[in-house]
Amino acid sequence: MYGQEQQRQYYTRSKAYLAGAATSLPPEEQLPELRTLLRYHEWRYYVQNDPVLSDYDYDQLYKQLEALEATHPALITPDSPSQRVGSDLTGDFESVPHLVPMLSLGNSYNAEDLAEFNRQVKRMLNMEEDAALAYAVEPKFDGGSIALVYENDQLVRAATRGNGVLGEEITHNARVIRSVPLSAAFSRYGLHRVELRGEVIIRKDRFEEMNAQRAAAGLTLYANPRNTATGGLRMKSPTEVADRNLEAFIYSFGYGTDAEGNDAVQALGTHTHALDVLTELGFKVPATGYERTEAADIATAAAFCAKWETEREAYPYEIDGMVVKVDDLALQERAGYTSHHPRWAIAFKFAARQATTTLLNVEYQVGKIGTITPVAKTEPVALAGVMISSVSLHNEDFIREKDLRLGDKVLLERAGDVIPYIVKPLIDLRDGSEQAIVWPITCPVNQTGEPVPLVRQEGEAAWRCPVCVCGAQNLQRITFHVSKAAMDIDGMGQRYVEQFYALGWLHTVVDVYRLPYDKIALLEGFGERSAENLRRSIDAAKQNPLWRLLYGLSIHHFGKKASQLVAQHIGHVLDLADWTEEQFLNIKDIGPTVATNVTAYFANPLHLDQLRELEALGVNVRPTDEDRPAAEVTEGPFVGKTILFTGSLQQLSRKEAQERAKAAGARIVSAVSGKLDILVVGEKPGSKLKKATALGTVQVLTEAEYLALV
Ligand SMILES: NC(=O)c1ccc[n+]([C@@H]2O[C@H](COP(=O)([O-])OP(=O)(O)OC[C@H]3O[C@@H](n4cnc5c(N)ncnc54)[C@H](O)[C@@H]3O)[C@@H](O)[C@H]2O)c1
Ligand SMILES: [Zn+2]
User: What NCBIfam families does UniProt report for this protein, alphabetically (predicted)?
Assistant: First the structure.
């Protein structure tokens, strides 16, 4: 019905009107355009069930039309959206005339709007401004409207709202909705023929269950409860309708006559009483004292609306507002109707939870542990009471699954306390100028030094920057600092670091050495014993060789090898504060990147303070024996020989054995090859022994023979 280019144009023009950018046009031009736009949005909403504007935006556009028509009544046309209700006729069902037209509702958004409505109603009824006027207030159910006709106590017909005058006949489908009684004792109240108005909806939890089942069965998911209900009413077969667990809330009589054809509804007195009667007759009606109330005045009605706005999320059904109705049926009749809505009722709309806007750009943030989070920058838009221009996109998969592109028109949602998120791109509004979002392969934040490739662990959704030196990287740094590779603090893994960090005990690496062990002992899963063990591990780490501390500072590109080399050349870690890049470069195997990064690190007074604190806490800041290069051994049994250990040694640890071999002049190698001179074999030697024997050039020693030699 509408082409893609046209849809995009209508969307753009609608946003222009909403931004007030079209008001300079003469009314003769604005009016037809506004009508065209509103009709397009009604089609998206009622027929496609996939609106491209939020309800709030649609209502604002509608109000512009109304206001313009009010000042230029001569320009009103009978087919204007202000003169009739939006049509959801699809042509799939036979259409039938309603006994009384089914209309829309006027809108209000706050107590002030309601007060204005109250004044208007009283003016219309020729009442004093301070005269008493009671209202009935009930939820505005967000589903599909239905009209049920009963004759002689039997359900004879059900229809959708259609275009308000004609509805679609869906009796078979309505009959399988359990809360629609097939018969009801209207005759007890002198009612011979009635038309009831209601809303067909689906419980939110049932909706979630159905979608969970569909997901498990590999079926496409239903978009939302409203569409599931309206679509459910229009199924071809009643058994499919039954599967959807639909319910019908009845909210009023539309019509009711006695056997002679005289009105028999007015006699019920008030709307409240009419609903009590319907409850009595077995209909599902908003419960008095819970979902509905009688309000003595408009302020009380407004307070009830406000209360429900805060309780909306917890309510089992989707409601998009409340409806405030003059309670007295005779006064309703006197107030009457426009061609679009009753004058005696108004919808109090809750803040819209959805909005549409344009996705302009994607920026990337680095989180606490180096996690890269893509953030959509959008054209600013009001959503649930706040202006939104940034929306988290969570991770790469989210972008891929939704097929989001730069320049897309997107649907945003913000429900309850949930942070705003992008529901989907509006694909029908694309014009081909949209650009793919290119996921970064290197750290997008850290722009100093060489690009850092991002990493993604198996089973994880997030990409991380492993060595990011920018932003809030402390947690990631601390984790690395305590890791086996750096300070090697036994028993203190990432989990504890994250836990202590969350508790506020860790801010920088310095805090690792002043943890509150008394409090740790009280943590769940700890106890005195493990707290004490942790303290011991940390105390032991204080004696580490200097290279581990240097490496544990997470200086970009300053790796293990370079840390070891630098540690050999200083007497105290703070000596480096005076080092020039040139001095670093004088060390063989240290390159310019490391020279630049380490100099920059030590030029930062904050870092120097941290190192002083570490020293004060007892962390070793001077080179140890392990840091010093082993003086070249020129004497000993193994001078000039290479050696390798295999199997488990009984008398010595592997490390000790290696130390002794070095002291005896040997060089340790890691594999059996033609270059290997000696293989020392412990218990259960594996393939290395076989390989060495096969080579025939390797001298094989038992542990005892080896010990005898050294
Ligand atoms: N987003 C869009 O592009 C777009 C387009 C068209 C319409 N809309 C939305 O639809 C509204 C107009 O639709 P509408 O004509 O259906 O009007 P409406 O939804 O504002 O109000 C009328 C309807 O409310 C329902 N309702 C639920 N509970 C009720 C109760 N307790 N008492 C009385 N009625 C109750 C009835 O089905 C009735 O038909 C707009 O204000 C807008 O929110 C949005
Ligand atoms: Zn980075």
Answer: dnlj, PRK07956.1
With a 6 Å cutoff on the Cβ, whether 53 touches ligand 1 is: yes
Please report which confidence band the pLDDT of residue 640 belongs to, taking 50, 70 and 90 as the band edges: confident
What residues are neighbours of ligand 2 (ion), with CB under 5 Å?
Answer: 443, 446, 465, 468
In this prediction, residues 676-697 reach a mean pLDDT of 90
Mean per-residue pLDDT over the chain, rounded? 92
Was 199 annotated as part of a binding site? yes
pLDDT of 469 higher than 50: no
Average pLDDT over residues 197-223: 94
Q: What's 635's DSSP letter? A: S
Which single residue is written with the structure tokens 């313009």? 68
The closest residue, in CA terms, to atom 11 on ligand 1 is: 55
Q: Does residue 146 line the site of ligand 1, with CB under 6 A?
A: no
**What are the chain's domains?**
4-75 (1.10.287.610), 95-349 (3.30.470.30), 353-472 (2.40.50.140), 486-616 (1.10.150.20), 642-709 (3.40.50.10190)
Per the CB < 8 A criterion, the answer to whether 484 and 507 are in contact is: no
Q: What is the CB neighbour count within 10 angstroms for residue 691?
A: 16
Q: Is 104 in the pocket of ligand 1 (CB under 6 A)?
A: yes
Torsion of CA 577, 583, 584, 586, to 10 degrees: -160
- In 244-318, which ranges are continuous DSSP H helix? 271-280, 298-311
Mean pLDDT within 493-515: 86
Q: What is the mean pLDDT of residues 183-195?
A: 97
Residue 140 bears catalytic tag: yes
**3-class SS of residue 157:** strand
Beta carbon of 251 within 6 Å of any ligand 1 atom: yes
State yes or no: 315 annotated in a binding site.
no
- Mean local confidence (pLDDT), 629-645: 82
C-alpha to C-alpha distances, 93 to 96, 168, 546, nearest whole angstrom = 9, 6, 83
Q: Ligand 1, atom 23: nearest CA belongs to which residue?
A: 104
Which is the catalytic residue, given 15, 63, 122, 140? 140
542 labeled part of a ligand binding site: no
Best mean pLDDT range from 194-198, 312-316, 378-382: 194-198
Task: Tell me if 324 sits within 8 A of 137, measured CB to CB.
Answer: yes
Structure tokens at 2: 């509408």
